[in-house]
Amino acid sequence: MSTLLAKAISLKSLMQQLSKHEFLAFMAKLFDVNYCNVISLSLFNHFTASIPKQNLNHLDVINCILSEIIESRKIKPKPLAMANMKLNKVPKALLGHIASFLDQSNYFEFEKTNRCIFIACNSPNMLSVLNLLQVEDYSNINLSQFKSVKELKIKLANFQQLAVPQNGHLILNNLQYLTLHGKHLNDIDIEPFLQQKCLNIAEIIGVQFVRFGKGFSSFNVDKFLRLLAYFKNIEYLSFFSIILSDTLSTQKLSQFYASYPLLKGLGVCGGNASVNNNLVNIFGDNLQLLSYSYPPRDGFDFSRINFSKLQQIMLETAKFKTIQEILKSAPDIAKICLFPDGYHITCPSAQDLKRIIPPIFACKALQYFEITMNASNYLSILNGIELALYQTKKWKRKEMKIRVNGKKNASPP
C-alpha cells in the first residue's frame, strides 16, 4: 500500500511540472497505449467520491463537450445495450447522495434493501430532513447520528428528552431550517432549548413556529418573545396558528426589526390577527417572499407598505382590497398563488376574482400564476385569465406558467 501511495504521489508531482503543450502530448500518448478506460474511470471516481457542489458545474461542462462530440458524428452509433448494473456496483458515496433526496420514510425503507445500501446511507447518514413531529418519545433518538440534516422538525416540549452532547460539541452542522411545534400548549419549559450548546443557531436561516396556544388557552407572550430573540440570522420566519397571551403590539415586535436584518421571507397562517398584521407591516418593506393565510376581515391595511422587493406571494382568502394594496407597490413580483377557498369561506368573490386577475397579469415580471377554483367561481376565474391574456398578448415574456387547481365543493361566500 505504501509503494502504491508513493507512486501516486510521484505521478501527481510529475504532472504538475508539465506545461499545457506537454500535458496534451502526455494525454495523446496515453491514448496510443490504450489507457482510455483508466482516464474515464478516474474521472468517474473523482466526481463520485464526495460530490461537492462545485463539481456539478464541471460535470455539466464535461458532459456537454462529450455530447457535442458524439452528436457531430456523421455516422450515428447504435444505441448502447442496456447494462445489467446492480446497485452494489454503484459507488457508496453516489448511493448515499441519491438517497439524500428521499423523504424520511422512504429513506429508512431504502436503507433496509441490503447491507451495501445500509452502509452507503449511514457512512455518514445522508438524510436531509428529519421530522420528529409524529414521534412521542425522543429518549432513544441520538441527533449526533444525523450529520447531513438540513431541516429539523421537533416538538419543543420534548427537546429535553433528546440524547445530545453535554460538552458543547456541535452537531447537525448543516442545519439551516428548524420547525418548533408547541403542541397547542399554553406553557412549555423552554430553558433546556435556550441553554443547549449543541446546535449552531447562528447558521439557521429559517424558523417556523407551529401551534403555540389554542383558543382561549394562549401561550405566554414573554416566553415566546425569548424564543424569537434566540435566533439572530434568520432569513425566513413563519407563524402557524400562534395564539399569544398578549396582542404582541407593534412596539414589542419592533425590537426584532433590528435583530432580523436579513429577513426576506415571512409566512403567517391563522393565530392572532393583530400579530400577523403587525408582522407584515414591520417587515413588509424588505420582504421578497410573503405567505399570508387568514379569514377575511376588516382592519388589515397594507397600503402604507412598500412591497418593491416582493417577488413571490401566496394569499389564502385575501380580500380584494388587500390584493390591490399589495399589487400597487410590487412591480417585480414573479410568482403569485391565490387560494380563495379556506376557513370554510370563499374570498374574494367570483366577480372580484375576475376583476383582480388582469391587474395581476399586468405585472411585467410575472412568470407563474396559480389559483384554486370551485363550482361557484370557475367561470369567473377562467374569464379573468382569458381577459388578462388578451390584454397582455403583445408583451414579450421569457416564460409564463399558469396552474389552475379544481375543487369539487364550494365554500360559502
Tell me what you see in this structure.
The protein has 413 residues and is of the alpha/beta class. Among the domains are: 1-31, no CATH class; 128-287. It is built from 14 helices and 13 strands. The chain has helices at residues 2-16, 20-32, 36-49, 53-71, 92-99, 104-110, 115-121, 191-194, 221-230, 250-254, 273-283, 320-328, 350-361, 378-391; strands at residues 129-131, 151-155, 177-181, 206-212, 236-242, 265-269, 289-293, 312-316, 335-339, 341-342, 345-346, 368-373, 401-406. The strands form two sheets. Strands 1-2-3-4-5-6-7-8-9-12-13 form an eleven-stranded parallel β-sheet, covered by helices on one side. Strands 10-11 form a two-stranded antiparallel sheet. Helix 13 packs parallel to helix 14. The chain is globular. It starts with a helix and ends in a 7-residue tail after the last strand. The model has no long low-confidence stretch (mean pLDDT 86).
Helix coverage percent:
25-40%
Shape: globular
Number of strands: 13
The major pleated sheet works out as:
11 strands, parallel
SS class: alpha/beta
Helix and strand pattern: HHHHHHHEEEHEHEHEHEEHEEEHEHE
Q: Beta-sheet strand percentage? A: 15-25%
- Helix count equals 14
Ranges where pLDDT stays below 50 over 5 or more residues in a row are: none
* Average pLDDT score: 86
Q: What is Rg?
A: 28 Å
What is the first-to-last residue Cα distance? 77 Å
